[in-house]
Design goal:
By secondary structure, chain A is of the alpha/beta class. Chain A is built from 13 helices and 21 strands. Chain B is built from 9 helices and 10 strands. The longest helix of chain B has 21 residues. The chains are: A alpha/beta, B alpha/beta.
């Protein structure tokens, strides 16, 4: 499908082509020559004469000039070609845990559509990337949809990518397959404005999260002990400030439970070895206290996290339903999540920033957020999401999932997100199949000019 | 040569005599300024020492006892040179229905040569064309006119040769007819002709004008001088009157300059019959 970035340039080229045609009809030409020996007695006059013609005299020259003007205009206007696709794309965001059972997910979505739980006109069928006439379903796998806000930036990013490759798209619909239990709705509210349309929520087909990870309604904050860091470590003061705020009954349920934040990676390695044993539910004694070990190295490089080739910067980190906005340097990449792992914090681009892994006596959390020792970024209210995720009991602070209107609604219920709302970066704008088009148009324009010049020289000769 | 047949027929019987006596030369038909002992008596003169005794009138000496010699009028030849301008401008108009200036000049040259040859005068031709020169010295033998006609037929006009340098080769005391369109080195040519006239030669300029130069086409053209192709002027119908005025003034000035130099001047247009033009030139310069 053809599209133009700057239509006015193409319009100017069209006007130029019309001007060339007009000039060919209103030509200035030299009169025929006459050998006259007494030419010296002819009075001085203009050596050119203007004449109007009904048809162009040299059609080949006219075509070459018009071709050169139009080709240059098309190249400069950003004419590009992309494969034809659906005008409306439905983005379905589902938890990556369902990836192994995508057939069941497809059946679940199909049943839900048939039952009317999802607007029928937005979901015809489900496939990973399957064009189905005017509508298309794009399935997005996400990590940790217990924070449902995670789905929104992923959907925005995918919509922008689709806009770069499918110029004909006009609208986007968003369907989030949410898990039965959520860790909070704050992140959803924080990211909700990023999606410029209505969002449909669909319950997961089945709950696969272990019981130990879903303790139920209500939150319990554990006391925190920071070890291995320098005396001036910011985390010490931050958690010391947060602990007095916890009420007695909140901590009485498991008074022996504690959160140990290790800032030194060398000492943390040994503790992880001693804690990481077997499946959590099978080997945990009901009466023994739960140990929450947080490995939060000062340099932001937890053990087991691969080092990035080139460090980059994230503008925010989201956890516990709140986004902490600050320039964070990322030096590591998140590892693939195992079955006993879940993400508890995410960077602004959706990448995992902290992981919780269930072990026999509790859980181990690794945090890859680099906070300078002298920084006060964790003292801001927005940092509460990250701190709560760190000091929460194993399994997090879970709550029941409801299809609340405030969670879903944004404008009209059936309003689709217009494609124009998604900004396409310059790097994504040019699809690989269309990169040759503009240079080819420029070469065509130059070639037409060269042939036109050769043609004029031949006519003079 | 066959093309000149009707013209030569029309010129049969035409003689080209001089208006005044010519200088001493080989015996011919023209009255000579030299007094000799020919049969036609003119006057007596007292015998002077050194005179040929055979010229004495012995009967008069016997009657009057005084010695007189008999004087008679001499007849001499007048060599005739025909000088032709073979420049590129003489080829105008090319390929048209009418005769070009060069064709008319050739016809006039052949006609004048035939008339002079019929008078017993030797006839020679000088032609400058392109970057070469044709020189045929004056001859009186039979077939001279045919040779001249063939030589002229083989010439192709071109270039911008100097006609004045050609005229400088013409000896004094001859008759020289210059056939040109006067569009070349006119100043030098008139200057050289005046030198020739001062030397005792009869010089006649025949100005060849094309009819197409007098009546221009109505359409708009880019007029280009064949001898100076870098010059080009747009020739529009509205400029015809000014062009004709300028050209007429040029021809008038040219005629005055030729006559002022002591030479004769005749203007011949290409739409005029060559035989008639030859008769006109001969009548103007002859007796």
């Amino acid at each position: 499908m053809w599209s133009v970035s700057s239509p006015w340039v193409l319009g100017v080229a069209g006007l130029g082509a019309i001007g060339v045609l007009a000039l060919h009809l209103l030509s200035v030409h030299r009169p025929p020559e006459l050998l006259l020996p007494t030419a010296r007695f002819v009075p001085e006059t203009m050596a050119r004469a203007v004449a109007r013609q009904r048809t162009p005299t040299d059609l080949l020259l006219l075509l070459l000039r018009i071709l050169a003007v139009l080709a240059a205009g098309a190249a400069l206007s950003g004419l590009r070609w992309a494969p034809a696709g659906a005008r409306e794309i439905t983005l379905v965001v589902a938890d990556r845990r369902l990836l192994a059972d995508s057939i069941a997910l497809r059946a679940h979505v199909t049943r839900s559509v048939a039952a009317g739980r999802v607007t029928r006109e937005r979901t015809a069928s489900v496939s990973d990337t399957a064009a189905s006439g005017p509508r298309e379903i794009e399935l997005i796998w996400a990590d940790g949809l217990q924070e449902p806000g995670r789905a929104l930036p992923l959907a925005v990013e995918r919509a922008a990518r689709l806009m770069a490759t499918r110029a004909g798209t006009e609208r986007f619909a968003l369907l989030v397959v949410a898990p039965a239990s959520l860790h909070g709705t704050e992140s959803w509210q924080a990211w909700r404005a990023a999606w410029p349309g209505a969002v449909q929520l669909l319950p997961e087909p089945r709950i696969t999260w272990p019981d130990s990870l879903t303790p139920g309604e209500g939150a319990v904050w554990l006391p925190v002990r920071v070890t291995g860091g320098p005396p001036t470590d910011l985390l010490v003061s931050v958690f010391a400030r947060l602990t007095p705020g916890i009420s007695a009954d909140q901590t009485s349920a498991s008074s022996a439970d504690t959160v140990v934040v290790q800032r030194d990676t060398t000492t943390a390695a040994g503790d992880i070895d001693s804690l990481d044993t077997t499946e959590p539910a099978a080997s945990t004694d009901a009466g023994s206290p739960t140990v929450v070990l947080v490995q939060w190295p000062i340099n932001g490089r937890p053990a087991g996290w691969p080092i990035r080739d080139v460090p980059d910067t994230a503008s925010a980190v989201s956890a516990g339903g709140r986004a902490l906005i600050a320039p964070f340097v990322r030096t590591v990449r998140a590892p693939a999540l195992a079955t006993n792992e879940r993400a508890i914090a995410w960077w602004s681009d959706g990448e995992v920033a902290a992981i919780e892994r269930m072990v026999s006596r509790g859980c181990v959390r690794t945090v890859a957020i680099v906070v300078p020792i002298s920084s006060d970024v964790l003292l801001t209210p927005a940092a509460g999401g990250v701190l709560d995720a760190v000091r929460a009991p194993c399994g997090g602070r879970a709550m029941s999932w409801r299809l609340a209107d405030s969670l879903v609604g944004f404008g009209a219920p059936d309003a689709l997100a217009p494609a124009a709302a998604f900004r396409v970066s310059a790097a994504l704008r040019m699809s690989p199949a269309a990169r040759w088009l503009q240079p080819a148009l420029l070469v065509l324009a130059l070639l037409a000019l060269a042939v036109e010049w050769w043609r004029r020289q031949a006519m003079r000769g | 040569m066959a093309a000149h047949g009707p013209m030569l027929d029309a010129l049969r019987g035409v003689r080209w005599s001089t208006r005044s006596a010519v200088a001493a030369a080989a015996p011919g038909v023209h009255r000579s300024r030299q007094r000799g002992t020919a049969g036609e008596f003119t006057e007596y003169r007292l015998y002077r020492q050194g005179d040929d005794p055979r010229a004495l009138d012995w009967k008069l000496l016997a009657r009057s006892d005084r010695a007189f010699v008999r004087l008679s009028e001499e007849r001499a030849l007048l060599p005739t040179w025909v000088v032709l301008d073979g420049s590129a401008s003489m080829a105008f108009p090319e390929g048209g229905a009418t005769m070009s200036k060069w064709q008319l000049a050739c016809a006039l040259a052949v006609g004048l040569s035939a008339v002079a040859h019929a008078s017993g005068d030797p006839v020679g031709v000088l032609v400058a064309h392109g970057y070469s020169l044709l020189r045929m010295p004056p001859r009186t033998r039979r077939g001279t006119i045919i040779e001249i006609a063939r030589a002229l037929d083989a010439i192709v006009c071109g270039g911008d040769p100097s006609l004045a340098a050609l005229v400088a080769q013409v000896p004094a005391r001859v008759r020289c007819v210059i056939l040109t369109d006067c569009l070349g080195d006119l100043d030098a040519l008139i200057r050289q002709a005046s030198v020739l006239v001062a030397g005792g030669a009869w010089v006649e300029c025949v100005h060849v004008v094309a009819a197409a130069e007098l009546t221009l086409p109505d359409a708009v053209y880019l007029a280009r001088d064949p001898e100076h192709t870098e010059r080009a002027q747009v020739l529009a119908p509205r400029a015809h009157s000014e062009y004709r005025a300028r050209f007429a003034a040029f021809r008038e000035e040219t005629a005055q300059r030729w006559r002022g130099s002591g030479a004769g001047y005749s203007e011949v247009v290409t739409n005029e019959a060559p035989a008639r033009a030859v008769r006109r030139v001969v009548a103007r310069t002859g007796v």
